[in-house]
Write a structure and sequence with these properties.
The chain is α/β, with parallel strands linked by helices. The protein has 18 helices and 23 strands. The N and C termini lie far apart (53 Å).
């Protein structure tokens, strides 16, 4: 069992997740099997009940796990299919320890952080690592060194280094900040020195230090960090601002990070030469596009881009496939309740309405769907966006003026979107929605069938409400066709508007399975239609 722990210091948001993902990408290019674990020190059991403004988007896995968005980076960079067990939280750990204590499994001992909590953390990490069948498992330690809530996880990591062998089975990669101060552009290494000192006071000496800086660090700064932090100069890695996050693996490769890890951990790669040609081609298409389109993202959480991270990545993938830059225009849906949609949206080539919960901004989303439908603007609705497109169609085409979802108006006379039968009576919020991958049958001859190239697909879900089966015949007769269905045809999954160049919506989240070399088909369809618009 070989583990690489990735920690962070100084400030949050330094890119531990991208660093971990990039290391995994490089090792995979040498034929080494990898997997990844994200440790989140918050007390939530999972990310499912978090507002997107708190922690970015909630990423959903095939098994229905609602997890941190960094697992999305792992899946995209390393082309993995992870499970909920690959996201370890304080909430999960403490719940298990307390349940064990209640069952008497500690034989009357006083339950403490060490050894009981740290042992549970170690058990979870080693269990996932063993079951993954990977040669190396990369473990990202959330938070920053010095945070109170991170201490048990850092201690568990230290113990695993001792248990498994620091000589070749465990490595520590530490990401830090090297700010540039003043008009002369002087690099400051002191934050990195203090961060490493804090890490070493816990008993962990980093093997590699990844330095985040706006510019490549100088040789003198590298030598200074190496001396004061007790690492070889070649283990001080510079990660300046990149043109795209997909460029980071190439930067690490140029500095020999994969070779450092392979030599240190005595790995046996299938090839001594890297195979990053397809990745290099991807980066080239992203950073050197020949065309550009503007896509309006009309949503409720637009002041934080990470709320829609997987959509943005899916557009990057779809744009790269056409050597096209996607300019995402964030439009707060509340704006469209008071402003003319034509004035706000007239300059865009396509519109997407993504998922969300609650009544705020819904009327603005309906206005965006109406504008796209009436003006033949390419449109994609996802999850809530699928329900919005259905409600708008029922109001303005079927003439059901008060049509609505029972989520927004429980007393609506025309509940064209209603809560699913299995969701009735559920009181707990966490992990109780319809979650994870479900098979969807796609009608031949539909746009979705042409995009997917298959009549049977599997996509990930996260919802409680669905199109009301009692209205389906009337809706389809008027031109809003449900071309994708699940659960023996009883649950509507994909809608397509007849006579429109591209007006498609899905109950599932296609963005979660988008990959750099395999873009989400529905996002690709929107980009292609926008290029023709």
């Amino acid at each position: 069992m070989k583990l690489i722990f990735v920690s962070g210091g100084v400030i949050s948001g330094l890119g531990k997740g991208i660093t971990a993902s990039s290391i995994g990408r490089l090792l995979e290019s040498r034929g080494i099997r990898v997997s990844a674990i994200k440790v989140d020190p918050y007390l939530n059991v999972d990310a499912g009940t978090m507002n997107p403004y708190e922690h970015g988007e909630v990423y959903v896995l095939d098994d229905g796990g609602e997890v941190d968005l960094d697992l999305g980076n792992y899946e995209r960079f390393m082309d993995l299919h992870l499970t909920r067990d690959h996201n370890i939280t304080t909430g999960k750990v403490y719940r298990t320890v307390i349940e064990n204590e209640r069952r008497g499994e500690y034989l009357g001992k006083t339950v403490q952080i060490i050894p009981h909590v740290t042992d549970e953390i170690k058990r979870r990490i080693t269990s996932v690592a063993r079951d993954s069948g990977a040669d190396v498992v990369i473990v990202e330690l959330g938070g920053t060194v010095g945070d109170m809530e991170s201490m048990p996880f850092l201690e568990a990591a230290r113990q695993l280094g001792r248990d498994l062998g620091r000589e070749e089975n465990v490595m520590f990669v530490h990401t830090t900040l090297v700010p540039i101060m003043g008009s002369v552009g002087e690099e400051k290494t002191k934050p990195t020195q203090h961060s490493v000192k804090e890490l070493m006071s816990i008993g962990i000496r980093p093997d590699i230090i990844v330095c985040r800086c706006s510019e490549p660090i100088t040789d003198s700064a590298r030598a200074k960090i190496a001396m004061f932090c007790d690492v070889p100069e070649e283990a001080v890695i510079s990660t300046p601002d990149a043109r795209t996050t997909y460029e980071v693996p190439l930067n690490l490769e140029r500095q020999g990070v994969a070779d450092l890890i392979i030599d240190r951990m005595r790995l046996r790669p299938m090839t001594s030469r890297r195979d990053m040609s397809s990745w290099e081609g991807l980066v080239d298409r992203i950073v050197d596009p020949v065309r550009e389109v503007r896509i309006a993202l009309v949503g409720k959480y637009t002041s934080l881009a990470d709320s829609y991270l997987s959509h943005l990545e899916a557009f990057t993938h779809a744009g790269a496939a056409r050597r096209c830059r996607i300019r995402t225009v964030f439009v707060d849906s509340d704006r469209l309740t008071s402003e003319d949609p034509a004035e706000v949206l007239s300059g865009v080539d396509g519109i997407i309405v993504p998922g969300g919960f609650g009544t705020r901004g819904v009327e603005g989303m309906l206005a965006a769907a109406r504008y796209a439908r009436e003006n033949k603007v390419p449109f994609l609705g996802v999850c809530l966006g699928f329900q919005i497109a259905t409600i708008e169609f029922c109001r303005d085409v079927l003439g059901l003026e008060k049509a609505n979802s029972t989520e927004f108006d429980p007393r609506t006379p025309d509940p064209v979107v209603c809560i699913m039968d299995e969701q009735r009576g559920i009181s707990e919020m966490g992990a109780t929605m319809r979650l994870g991958a479900q098979d969807v049958v796609v009608a031949e001859g539909s746009k979705a069938h042409a995009l997917y190239g298959s009549a049977l697909i599997s996509e990930r879900h996260r919802h409680r409400y669905e199109v009301n089966p009692n209205y389906i015949d009337r809706i389809e007769a008027a031109g809003w066709r449900f071309t994708g269905r699940s659960d023996c045809g009883t649950r509507m999954e994909i809608g397509e508007l007849e006579g429109h160049p591209y007006f498609v919506a899905s109950q599932f989240h296609p963005e979660f399975k988008s990959r750099p070399q395999r873009p989400s088909p529905l996002h690709q369809g929107l980009v292609d239609a926008a290029l023709k618009n």
